Structure formats: structure tokens, C-alpha cells
């Protein structure tokens, strides 16, 4: 009996050892599977952003994360010359009166869950954006669409209320990413947070709020636009978009290899990064505009004389030289020159030159011979902070005493939405004149019309431009909008920053796109 008990103990001991060994090997396997540094064959590209989105839903978001570009395809794509090209639509026909558009849809496309993409998804997406219950910030951009009709599984017809030559632009935007029909009902309240369903080259893996968004390549993707060198699955495995609010931290992570791509390079860091042999800097013309704005419905900014005085008080040349190290150009109008057709070429001629004496005279005429006190708000990054400090000094020269108030990105937006602003610094990025609709139509009050400009003539001019029958007429009408805005000094345009991207040299085949990085179009990374 003792021998039997002893034998059982030996067997039991061996069993314990075997179990422990299995557990150890299992854990070791998990470590090797999960660690990018150990699994050398797993290719990961990391991009940094300065802010986190509110939601990963193209229909409901007020600020579009880069992730949404890669999760969703759109009917229309834009090539490296920014021309309209096929996307999920292989082609389109337009009636002579411009009121009927027929889109022919690409076959063989599936959503990330394997569901086939059809015309019903296009109709559901557009109808849901336009539905007031959705409360989509993008609804106004599609208001020209009266009805979307399904002809068959791969053909949709859009009936417009009026000719709208900007339709292709709007259908190519991030906000027009095609969603799976019924995704709200299917995935519930966590859609856009824990689940996102598209047809794009990358699939949603996870979102850790305030930290990172993780996307993995879509292995079934083979319907990339014809103009891309790679139309199939991405050449690397995972795209991580990290949220790093602090500018210095983003630069440090880039230099040390913690991130591979920095989309907005701070001008003061550009020269130093150029000297780094591990980093490439891509510089191009941008579709951005930096400006000083004011609450136009509050005194004293409701007086055009005060607004003109502020415009004359700002020395744009000095700001471009010392704040942006020359990586910008002075701005006098409301659109950047990159918008070739729509840009008002006489903006500088019509705009307000630096003239402190004229600024003081206008303030005196407005009843402020000794100036006034106000608050100047800005985001708490190095460029905005330094810009605010220079503006504070320049305004002080004409008698405007501005107290600076700095905010993080989320708090800044909350402040503007609450209508607490006086003077404030802003920067927009948008490759189309309809950015003026977004910020300056009365219907957009109080946000994103954060300058609180509610003016019937502006509404009339913008609506006339937006509903023009042809692109050429539309462009000319938007120039009329710009002339009027300059006359009314609705903003104080300051600078047009260069578009600067920093990319580590282990990222190969990188090509700068005028809109957004095309990660699926042949970009790859060399791993050690």
C-alpha cells in the first residue's frame, strides 16, 4: 500500500511538472505572438496625432480622425494630382441639366465582416447622413441631394434639387465613407467606439481613448483605386495612430523611433529634423489657413472699424519669419492659393497691410481712442502659444490690451461651443471653398461658426456660389464671397503654413499625397 501511494505521488509530481511546462510554453508563445519586437515578421507603422477623436463614426464626428480614411472607402477617390477618380464607383454619368447622377458600383467588394457591398449601403449611408435624427455635422454638405434611388445591386441614381458641381468633392471626403447598411441597429450604442465596419484597406482592432487607435490590414482587400501602385492588401500588417498631445513628446518619439510618421511638423523643428539622417522631411503647398478671429456679435468686435483696425495691427511678415522660420507665407484672404480655381488672386491687393497708425485711427473713429481690454485665446502648443504672444505684443502697440488664455484641444473646442471667446487663434485645413460655408453661414451658428458671424448677405453670396450650375461659375461666385469677407474684415487672415511631414527612413515607398497619406498604396516598412 505504501508503494502504491508512493507511485501515485511520483505520477502526480510528473503531472504537475508537465502542466507547469505547458503553461510556461503557452505564456511564452503568447509573448512571442504579441510582441512586435520579438515577432520580426510583423510590420507596424506608427503615426502620431495631437488629439483624439470624439467618435470613430464618419456620420457623427465633428473632427475626422485619420483612421476613418483607411477604414472606409468612398465612391470617389482623389489621385496624386488631386483629380477625381473612381473609388467604390467605377464611373458615373450626369444628365445635361446636372440634376441626375448615376453611379456604377464596383463589384466583388465586401465589408470587413464579409458582407457584400451593394447599392443599398450607398443609399443607407447618404440617407442616414441627411436624416435630422442623426444630427450629422456633414448633413448640409449633401443637402443638394434630393433622393437616392437603387437601380440594381451595383447602380445608384442621385436626384439633385439643383445643379451642384461640388458633388464629386463631397462624395470623395472622409465624411462620405460608405458604412454598412443598418450598422447602428446591428452594433448598437458602441458603434464608432468598439466597432467600426467599412470596406477600407484597414480594419478596426481597438481604440484606447487618449492613447491609440489600432488598425490591421484587410487581407481580402483587392479593390484599391486604379491609380494606386498597390491595389491589393497593404504591404504592412498594422497601422497604429497614437495620440500624443505634447509637441515635444511627438518630436522625441519620432527621433527615437517610437513613431514613424509625424503629419504636422512644427516649423521651429523643421531645420533640426532635416539634419537627422534617419528622417525624411516632405514639404509641399498646403490647403491650410491660420487666422485671428473674434466674436463678431460681441462688442467691440461687432464694429467693422474695430475689425479692420485689428487687421492693420498684425504684422504678418514678422510672424512668418520668426514664428514659422519661413515655412509659411503671409495670408490676406480667406482661402489658400492651393485652391487654384477658387482662390481670389487679388486677396493681398484688397487685404489689410500692416499699418499701426491706420489701426489707431480706426479705433479712435470707432470710439476707442485709448484702445480696449480683451482676452486672446489659443491652444497650448508651442506654435499657437508663441503666435498668441506675438499678436499680444502687436495689438498692444495700437492700444488693444489682450490677456492670453491657453487651452488643451478638447477644452478649446468646448470654450468655442459655449460662446466664451473674444479674440482667438484658429487654423483650418480643407481643400475646397466650401470651408467658408462651414465656418461662416448663419445656419452653422454657434458652432462651427465660432466667429459668430450671422450675416444675410454672406448667406446669400455663399448659397449662390454653392448652388452654381457649373464649376467655373461656382469658382467665380466664391471669389465674390471672399471680396465681401475681406471688406467686412470678418477674420484677420495671418499665414498659410507649409505642409510638412516627417517620415523615418525605415518607411519606404512613401509618396506625399495632397490630401492624406495613402498607406495602402504601396507604403511599406523595413523591419530589423
What does this protein look like?
- The protein is 32% helix and 22% strand.
- With 528 residues, the protein is an alpha+beta fold.
- The termini are far apart.
- A hairpin with a 3-residue loop joins strand 8 (202-208) and strand 9.
- It has helices at residues 2-34, 67-71, 119-130, 167-172, 183-187, 247-256, 267-274, 304-313, 316-322, 347-350, 356-365, 382-396, 409-417, 435-440, 456-466, 471-488; strands at 44-49, 76-78, 84-86, 89-94, 100-105, 145-152, 155-160, 202-208, 212-217, 238-243, 261-262, 279-284, 288-294, 328-330, 372-379, 400-407, 423-429, 492-497, 499-504, 507-508, 524-525.
- Helix 8 (304-313) packs antiparallel against helix 11 and helix 15 runs antiparallel to helix 16 (471-488).
- It is globular and about 70 Å long.
- It has 16 helices and 21 strands.
- Residues 1-16, 21-25 and 30-39 have low confidence and may be disordered.
- The longest helix is centred in the N-terminal third of the chain and has 33 residues, at 2-34.
- A 7-stranded mixed sheet has the order 8-9-10-1-11-19-12. A 6-stranded mixed sheet has the order 14-18-13-17-15-16.
List the main descriptive attributes of the protein structure presented here.
seven-stranded mixed beta sheet
Instruction: Determine the strand fraction and express it as a percent band.
Output: 15-25%
pLDDT < 50 runs, ≥5 residues: 1-16, 21-25, 30-39
N-to-C span: 61 Å
Structural class: alpha+beta
Number of helices: 16
Give the spatial strand order of the biggest sheet: 8-9-10-1-11-19-12
* Sheet having the most strands: 7 strands, mixed
Radius of gyration: 27 Å
Strand element count: 21
Helical residue percent band: 25-40%
Report the principal-axis shape. globular
How would you state the average pLDDT, rounded? 92
Amino acid at each position: 500500500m505504501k508503494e502504491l501511494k508512493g507511485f501515485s505521488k511520483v505520477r502526480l509530481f510528473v503531472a504537475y511538472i508537465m502542466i507547469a511546462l505547458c503553461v510556461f510554453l503557452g505564456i511564452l508563445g503568447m509573448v512571442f505572438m504579441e510582441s512586435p519586437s520579438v515577432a520580426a515578421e510583423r510590420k507596424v507603422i506608427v503615426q502620431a496625432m495631437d488629439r483624439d477623436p470624439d467618435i470613430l463614426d464618419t456620420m457623427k464626428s465633428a473632427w475626422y480622425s485619420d483612421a476613418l480614411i483607411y477604414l472606409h472607402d468612398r465612391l470617389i477617390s482623389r489621385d496624386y494630382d488631386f483629380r477625381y477618380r473612381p473609388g467604390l464607383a467605377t464611373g458615373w454619368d450626369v444628365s445635361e441639366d446636372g440634376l441626375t447622377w448615376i453611379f456604377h458600383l464596383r463589384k466583388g467588394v465586401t465589408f470587413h465582416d464579409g458582407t457584400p457591398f451593394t447599392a443599398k449601403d450607398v443609399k443607407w449611408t447618404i440617407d442616414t447622413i441627411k436624416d435630422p435624427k442623426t444630427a450629422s455635422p456633414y448633413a448640409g454638405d449633401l443637402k443638394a441631394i434630393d433622393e437616392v434611388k437603387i437601380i440594381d445591386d451595383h447602380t445608384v441614381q442621385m436626384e439633385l434639387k439643383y445643379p451642384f458641381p461640388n458633388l464629386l468633392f463631397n462624395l470623395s471626403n472622409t465624411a462620405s465613407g460608405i458604412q454598412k447598411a443598418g450598422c447602428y441597429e446591428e452594433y448598437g450604442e458602441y458603434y464608432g467606439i468598439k466597432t467600426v465596419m467599412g470596406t477600407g484597406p484597414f480594419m478596426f482592432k481597438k481604440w484606447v481613448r487618449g492613447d491609440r487607435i489600432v488598425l490591421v490590414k484587410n487581407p481580402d482587400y483587392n479593390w484599391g483605386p486604379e491609380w494606386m501602385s498597390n491595389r491589393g492588401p497593404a504591404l504592412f500588417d498594422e497601422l497604429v495612430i497614437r495620440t500624443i498631445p505634447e509637441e515635444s513628446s511627438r518630436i522625441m518619439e519620432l527621433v527615437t523611433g517610437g513613431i514613424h510618421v509625424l503629419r504636422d511638423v512644427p516649423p521651429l523643428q523643421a531645420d533640426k529634423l532635416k539634419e537627422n539622417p534617419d528622417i525624411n522631411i516632405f514639404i509641399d503647398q498646403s490647403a491650410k489657413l491660420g487666422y485671428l478671429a473674434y466674436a463678431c456679435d460681441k462688442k467691440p468686435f461687432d464694429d467693422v472699424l474695430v475689425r479692420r483696425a485689428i487687421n492693420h495691427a498684425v504684422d504678418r511678415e514678422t510672424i512668418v519669419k520668426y514664428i514659422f522660420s519661413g515655412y509659411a507665407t503671409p495670408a490676406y484672404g480667406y482661402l489658400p492659393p492651393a485652391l487654384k480655381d477658387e482662390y481670389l488672386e487679388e486677396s493681398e491687393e484688397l487685404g489689410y497691410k500692416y499699418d499701426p497708425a491706420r489701426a489707431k485711427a480706426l479705433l479712435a473713429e470707432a470710439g476707442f481712442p485709448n484702445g480696449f481690454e480683451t482676452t486672446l485665446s489659443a491652444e497650448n502648443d508651442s506654435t499657437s502659444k508663441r503666435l498668441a504672444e506675438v499678436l499680444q505684443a502687436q495689438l498692444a502697440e495700437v492700444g488693444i490690451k489682450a490677456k492670453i488664455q491657453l487651452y488643451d484641444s478638447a477644452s478649446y473646442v468646448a470654450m468655442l461651443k459655449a460662446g466664451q471667446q473674444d479674440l482667438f487663434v484658429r487654423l483650418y485645413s480643407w481643400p475646397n471653398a466650401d470651408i467658408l460655408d462651414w465656418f461662416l453661414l448663419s445656419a452653422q451658428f454657434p458652432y462651427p461658426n465660432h466667429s459668430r458671424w450671422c450675416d444675410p448677405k454672406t448667406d446669400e453670396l455663399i448659397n449662390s456660389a454653392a448652388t452654381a450650375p457649373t464649376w467655373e461659375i461656382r469658382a467665380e461666385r466664391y471669389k465674390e464671397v471672399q471680396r465681401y469677407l475681406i471688406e467686412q474684415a470678418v477674420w484677420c487672415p495671418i499665414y498659410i503654413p507649409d505642409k510638412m511631414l516627417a517620415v523615418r527612413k525605415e518607411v519606404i515607398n512613401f509618396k506625399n499625397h495632397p490630401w492624406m497619406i495613402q498607406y495602402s498604396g504601396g507604403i511599406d516598412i523595413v523591419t530589423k
